């Protein structure tokens, strides 16, 4: 699955999943109005016995205004979203890049680093896609590079 954000001057933005040939296979709902956007965070999977793993996408709905962490799951040609947490961001207004992302540590699954919406702290979030939930597992003061590095580090 290839995941992208589609933008529209009239409709805002939405998450789209594509197959390897580049054909859209599932689309999320449009986010509101022009100049409103979604920021991708990462993907999580749930291993299943005797079935292929289920894939989910994490995104932030309006990372400068709303800050909802969404879990998107495919239901036919639609991506259904569930709000897992509120008040988070991975993009500072005016910045060229997003910050944080997925942690890659031995024995750690579905752990992500994000900032609070007001950019006062960096947090680790652990996502449980099966139960459609997320919980904060650590908080780091400040939002400078050292805070993001500490949050991404494997303890």
Low-pLDDT regions:
none
**Main beta-sheet annotation:** 5 strands, antiparallel
Terminus-to-terminus distance: 31 Å
What string gives the helices and strands in order? EEEEEEEEEEEEH
Mean pLDDT: 93
Q: What is the number of helical segments per DSSP (H or I, 4+ residues)?
A: 1
**Helical content, roughly?**
under 10%
Our Rg estimate from Cα atoms comes to 15 Å
What proportion of the residues form beta strands (DSSP E)? over 45%
Strand tally, please?
12
Shape, per Cα inertia axes: globular
Sheet/helix structural class: mainly beta
What report would you give on this structure?
- The mean pLDDT is 93.
- By secondary structure, the protein is mainly β.
- The strands form three sheets. Strands 8, 9, 10, 11 and 12 form a five-stranded antiparallel β-sheet that branches. A four-stranded antiparallel β-sheet has the order 4-5-6-7, with no helix packed on it.
- The chain contains one helix and twelve strands, in the order ββββββββββββα.
Short description:
The chain has 155 residues and is mainly β. It has one helix at 145-152, and strands at 2-8, 12-18, 24-27, 38-48, 51-61, 68-75, 78-85, 88-89, 101-102, 111-116, 121-128, 133-141.
């Amino acid at each position: 699955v290839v995941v992208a954000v589609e933008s529209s001057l009239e409709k805002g933005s939405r998450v789209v999943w594509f197959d390897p040939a580049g054909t859209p296979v599932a689309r999320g709902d449009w986010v509101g109005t022009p100049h409103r956007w979604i920021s991708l965070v990462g993907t999580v999977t749930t291993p299943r016995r005797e079935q292929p793993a289920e894939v989910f996408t994490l995104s932030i709905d309006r990372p400068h205004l709303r800050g909802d962490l969404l879990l998107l799951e495919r239901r036919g040609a639609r991506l259904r979203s569930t709000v897992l947490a509120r008040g988070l961001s991975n993009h500072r207004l005016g910045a060229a890049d997003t910050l944080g992302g997925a942690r890659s540590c031995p024995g750690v699954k579905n752990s992500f680093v994000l900032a609070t919406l007001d950019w006062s702290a960096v947090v680790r979030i652990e996502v449980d896609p099966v139960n459609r939930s997320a919980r904060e597992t650590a908080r780091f003061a400040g939002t400078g590079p050292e805070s993001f590095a500490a949050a991404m580090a494997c303890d």
